[in-house]
Design a protein that fits this description.
Layout: H1 9-20, H2 28-36, E1 57-60, E2 63-65, H3 68-77, E3 85-89, H4 95-103, E4 106-111, H5 114-126, E5 132-136, E6 149-154, H6 163-167, E7 169-180, E8 185-193, E9 196-205
Parallel strand pairs: 3-4, 3-6, 4-5, 6-7
Antiparallel strand pairs: 1-2, 7-8, 8-9
Helix pairs in contact: 1-2, 1-3, 2-4
Bound molecules: S-adenosyl-L-homocysteine.
């Protein structure tokens, strides 16, 4: 049976070419995932026409869905093969979680705001992402019952790496986090090598605040 053609497919392919490929993202699995995930479903209906634009968009509760390029860049920096167990902090709309669901074996995602978590959970279920688990909670504490994680992605800006997240990272694992002040951060890749932290940075970004015990106050 032929699947109904998605009218947004072309727009999505153009987003990937113009915003990701042109800026140097080469991971084919990431590009394919972002050609598949229906980003317009992760924003409210009134904003659908702008869903594939080169910018973040509001998702309610003063939070945002990240710019497509940033989602692509962070996903590429995680270097996923498909076998990993991944922890995401900051589910938000659930879009990044869906992209990770395409790229990894299992995704655990934590959101502190119950309304966002519930909406994302319902949408991901409707879209058939059976390997993505969403929980309401305080992300700077991680998800101890599911640790260790091969990869951790923090999609909110933090002053430092929350210690529980580094603890819950597997040996040779990799954590991607925007580190900086409340308005500007540097996208940072942290690796755990023989228990030690190795970091390098990857350019500037602007995320909403990571709120919690090991980050900013609400
Ligand atoms: N990844 C999201 C965008 C994240 S916006 C997407 O694809 O749409 C950042 C999210 O992090 C917000 O929803 C915010 O509520 C959440 N957040 C902030 N601090 C948090 C914490 N300590 N634990 C869990 N979620 C947190």
């Amino acid at each position: 049976m032929e699947r109904a053609r998605d009218p947004w497919e072309f727009t999505r392919a153009r987003m990937v070419d113009e915003q990701l490929v042109r800026r140097g993202i080469v991971d084919e699995r990431v590009l394919a995932a972002m050609r598949r995930v229906p980003r317009h479903r992760f924003v409210e209906e009134a904003l659908r026409d702008r869903a594939y634009g080169d910018h973040p968009l509001p998702i309610g509760e003063e939070q945002t869905i990240s710019q497509p390029y940033i989602v692509g860049l962070m996903s590429a920096l995680l270097e996923l093969s498909g076998r990993e167990k991944v922890l995401e902090i900051g589910t938000g709309s659930g879009y990044q979680a869906a992209v990770l669901g395409e790229l990894a074996r299992r995704v655990c995602s934590i959101e502190r705001l119950p309304r966002l978590a519930e909406r994302a959970r319902a949408l991901l279920e409707e879209l058939g992402y059976r390997n993505v688990w969403i929980r309401v909670g305080s992300g700077t504490l991680g998800w101890p019952d599911e640790a260790p994680f091969d990869r951790i992605l923090v999609t909110a800006g933090s002053p430092a790496v929350p210690p529980p997240l580094f603890q819950q990272l597997a040996e040779d694992g990799r954590l991607v986090i925007p580190l900086g002040d409340e308005t500007n951060q540097a996208l940072t890749v942290v690796e755990k090598v023989r228990g030690e932290m190795r970091t390098r940075t990857h350019g500037e970004c602007k995320f909403v605040k990571l709120v919690g015990k090991y980050a900013w106050e609400a």
